[in-house]
């Protein structure tokens, strides 16, 4: 009886919604959205399609569940100590300050999108067609609470939180896409080096600035540049949107 119970528990665990989502993430990471099919999923889980449909009705619902799970994990990242926070050298705020919590949310999403290249497209789809779904409010709440804690005046809170969310998702999505459109084996350093050389060869009269920063672009660190953008936005928020005096 005990052996039968353990086997039943193992089958239940294997066919849980959480296990299905985990397997779907693995398929998406390996082959993108096109590789996520219910046939591939049943093969990976060694089960029949009926067992999967018991938990998720269709691929759209599965993608929503997968996106929500990955985002929830990304938003659970705790702020790092100042000395450990990449790109925040010189930051004077304690880890529990609104600024550091915003940086933690931003980096959590940045790293998740970098690790799961399919996530950027799914987040764009969620934000454009399903503002009432779980993902959009989850991200907005994580940023908005800290915007409020920062002391932003009430009439500016939505604008400020939206600006942060759009920057985070846009910059992280662009970073994840850099070079990947050329193939999975493209090296980031080689991609940036080629872009830098192309910029340096532009017409000096028509593109003086682009030529001047070509070397900086080649040598930049993605995470540090991303956090520098967050700091620029935070500086603007504190300057423009906190109560006077």
Low-confidence stretches: 1-13, 83-90
* SS content category: mainly alpha
**Topology, number of strands:** 0
Count up the helices. Answer: 13
What's the quaternary structure here? single chain
Distance between the termini: 72 Å
* Strand/helix succession: HHHHHHHHHHHHH
Radius of gyration: 22 Å
On the 0 to 100 scale, the average pLDDT is 85
* Overall geometry: globular
Give a short account of the largest sheet: none
Helix fraction, binned, reads 55-70%
The proportion of strand residues reads under 5%
Structural commentary:
By secondary structure, the chain is mostly helical. Helix content is 69%, strand content 0%. The protein has helices at residues 2-14, 17-31, 38-45, 49-53, 59-75, 98-115, 119-129, 135-150, 157-177, 188-200, 208-212, 214-219, 222-241. It is globular and about 60 Å long.
């Amino acid at each position: 009886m005990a052996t039968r119970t353990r086997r039943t528990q193992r089958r239940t665990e294997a066919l849980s919604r959480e296990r299905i989502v985990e397997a779907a993430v693995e398929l998406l990471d390996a082959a993108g959205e096109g590789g996520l099919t219910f046939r591939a999923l049943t093969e990976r889980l060694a089960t029949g399609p009926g067992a999967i449909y018991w938990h998720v009705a269709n691929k759209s619902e599965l993608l929503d569940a997968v996106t929500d799970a990955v985002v929830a994990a990304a938003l659970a990242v705790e702020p790092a100590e100042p000395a450990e926070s990449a790109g925040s050298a010189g930051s004077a705020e304690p880890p529990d300050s609104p600024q550091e919590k915003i940086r933690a949310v931003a980096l959590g999403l940045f790293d998740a999108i970098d690790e799961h290249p399919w996530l950027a497209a799914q987040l764009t789809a969620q934000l454009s067609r399903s503002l009432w779904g779980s993902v959009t409010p989850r991200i907005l709440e994580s940023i908005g609470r800290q915007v409020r804690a920062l002391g932003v005046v009430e009439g500016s809170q939505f604008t400020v939180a939206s600006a942060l969310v759009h920057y985070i998702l846009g910059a992280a999505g662009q970073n994840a896409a850099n070079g990947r459109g050329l193939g999975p084996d493209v090296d980031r350093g080689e991609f940036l080096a080629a872009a830098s050389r192309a910029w340096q060869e532009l017409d000096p009269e028509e593109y003086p600035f682009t030529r001047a920063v070509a070397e900086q672009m080649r040598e930049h660190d993605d995470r540090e540049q991303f956090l520098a953008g967050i700091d620029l936005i935070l500086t603007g928020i504190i300057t423009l949107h906190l109560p006077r005096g």
